[in-house]
Write a structure and sequence with these properties.
The chain is of the alpha/beta class and about 300 residues long. The protein contains eleven helices and twelve strands. The strands form two sheets. Strands 2-1-3-4-5-6 form a six-stranded parallel sheet, with helices on both faces. It has a six-stranded parallel sheet with strand order 9-8-7-10-11-12, with helices on both faces. It is elongated and about 65 Å long. The protein starts with a strand and ends with a helix.
């Protein structure tokens, strides 16, 4: 079987879509099938659309329809990742349109499916999962890191600087805990150009997976202020690292992913209340988070089952 994929993986600190792409390619090749990134080849069985927008060669969703028109046995599987909810309405419209023509659609969350008002039955939900490496240094004890300076260590990380990642909330949180001696808040990743990184207890540049998997377990609690995420990966990496999560009620996929493993909040002030509640109930949530064990190897297995079922 030959499978065309319209995005190629890149190295370095990139978002979750790239990690999903890498896991899928590894799975396809492990199963003995061939991956190609060249749509001019004449014997493609599956077109796997990771993004309906043009790729670096200018190939986009319309080209997939043209290929299928000339190759009746070719099927289009569309993995919906970014739905444009982070200030890209043109992408939202393209996803809404393209999913009507794909043979099968994989959504990363119910929220993503409902956000584009998809009503057909030719779809499934396959939740995103973290890479196995994030379990490597998982701490199993409760609040083990607070003993260094008697502070609860709170952390978040983002590679994107989109405003909907919640930088206003992170700024508010830094201000609200300024006079508290029991909490410190650190940030790993990229920040908007105008953002003052000195407001954090510690600021760390973007890291690759190996380094991040060693950094995250050094903290006690993970927070995310990101909203309207179709398939968030950052809280999953924290969960794999053993950190209970405090997440925004408007997080899109995040409440689906983190419901059993953390506490929800609605604004900057209720975030402080949620942190205090998490500290109080930490053994309970730590025990829960240690039961989370999914990886993107399982996720790629589910993708492979979709591929095999549609051929």
């Amino acid at each position: 079987m030959k499978i065309y994929i319209n995005r190629e993986p890149v190295s370095g600190p990139w978002g979750g879509g790239n990690k999903t792409l890498t896991a899928l390619i590894d799975k396809i090749e492990k199963e003995g099938s061939q991956v190609t990134f060249d749509l001019t080849e004449s014997d493609i069985d599956i077109i796997f659309c990771f993004d309906p927008r043009p790729n670096s060669q200018g190939t986009w969703y319309q080209d997939f329809l043209d290929y299928r028109e000339n190759n009746k046995n070719t099927k289009i599987i569309q993995r919906v990742g970014d739905i444009g909810s982070h200030s890209k309405p043109e992408l939202t419209q393209l996803v809404m349109q393209s999913t009507q023509f794909s043979d099968f659609i994989i959504f990363p969350s119910r929220w993503a499916r409902d956000a584009i008002q998809f009503k057909k039955s030719n779809c499934t939900i396959v939740k995103n999962c973290p890479m196995p490496i994030f379990y490597k240094n998982r701490q199993r004890d409760g609040l083990v890191n607070a003993g260094v300076n008697n502070k609860i260590r709170v952390v978040t990380h983002h590679w994107s600087t989109n405003p909907k990642k919640g930088f206003d909330v992170y700024r508010d949180l830094s201000r609200l805990i300024k006079d508290r001696e029991d909490i410190e808040f650190s940030y790993i990743g990229r920040l908007p150009d105008s953002f003052d990184k000195n407001i954090f207890s510690q600021y760390i540049e973007p890291q690759d997976e190996e380094s991040l998997s060693m950094l995250l377990p050094q903290y006690d609690i993970y927070i995310t202020a990101s909203i309207e995420e179709a398939g968030a990966n950052h809280p999953l990496e924290a969960m794999a690292a053993g950190l209970p999560v405090i997440y925004h009620e408007l997080g899109g996929s995040i409440p689906e992913y983190c419901d059993e493993y953390g506490i929800q909040y609605g604004n900057s002030h209720s975030l402080i209340e949620s942190i205090d509640l998490m500290i109080k109930m930490y053994p309970f949530y730590k025990e829960r988070i240690l039961k989370y064990n999914r990886t993107n190897l399982e996720m790629s297995e589910e993708y492979w089952r979709v591929i095999c079922a549609i051929v």
